[in-house]
Prior knowledge:
Layout: H1 10-21, H2 28-44, H3 50-54, H4 56-64, H5 70-82, H6 87-99, H7 110-113, H8 117-132, H9 146-161, H10 163-167, H11 169-181, H12 186-194, H13 202-214
Helix pairs in contact: 2-9, 2-12, 4-5, 5-12, 11-12, 11-13
Amino acid sequence: MSPLPATIPALVRTKVRAAVRRPSRTTPQEAESRTLVLRLCSLLLQYPDAELAAARPVLTATVEALPPSPAAEHLAAYTAWCTEQEPEALERHYVEMFDLRRKSSLYLTYYLHGDTRRRGMALLTLAQRYRAAGWDTDGSELPDHLPVVLEFAALGGPRAGEAPLRQHRRGLELIQRALTDADSPYRHVLAALLTLLPPATEADLQAVAELAAQGPPNEDVGLDPYGSGEFAPPDAFVPPEQASPTLVPPMSTPPHPEGSR
Length: 261
């Protein structure tokens, strides 16, 4: 969205920007398709264990049955690649992209707050949001893990459910760029998700470019639980430290060491 003229009162400019970012009203059929796309993104971004690998024909058929849309095209591009891969190759690629690359971590609050108390508070806020909506996660993943956030978005709807996705729009953009730079087919899953969100603003794109160029500051502060240590700048970019690959199914994921898979 291009900047609004300075002659427009600040209150009006704020309301216009809010209206642009607010999800538009959809028909029941569009809402159902949107929910399905979110759930598919959640599934496809989970660790490709044997169960998920065996479900590839069903997932592919489900994607093919989606109404035509940019999101459906991106998901079809991913499933076409996925169905041709050996299970072991899928596992290795997933670990390389999401466990070993800091700029494509799936833990969203890192992109805003780093591994700090500010991030801990963000995790607590997410967990409280889930509980307030009546959704009880199994606790096997941190609440900012993207597949978890996507499942909540599918359950909660475009306004309240998708609010965490809109809040972390810049982090999602950075993940998609990192996957594109790595030529990973997972870039299509992120691209499908981004088609559902409000377009990135010039400020968003500039912030993402700066994060991609500067990289994370060296900060080593633990979470206890979900928070201890010093505050980081609001836009600090500190993805998790590189971790050893942990090949564990998404449906029964392991206890998460503090801030890393």
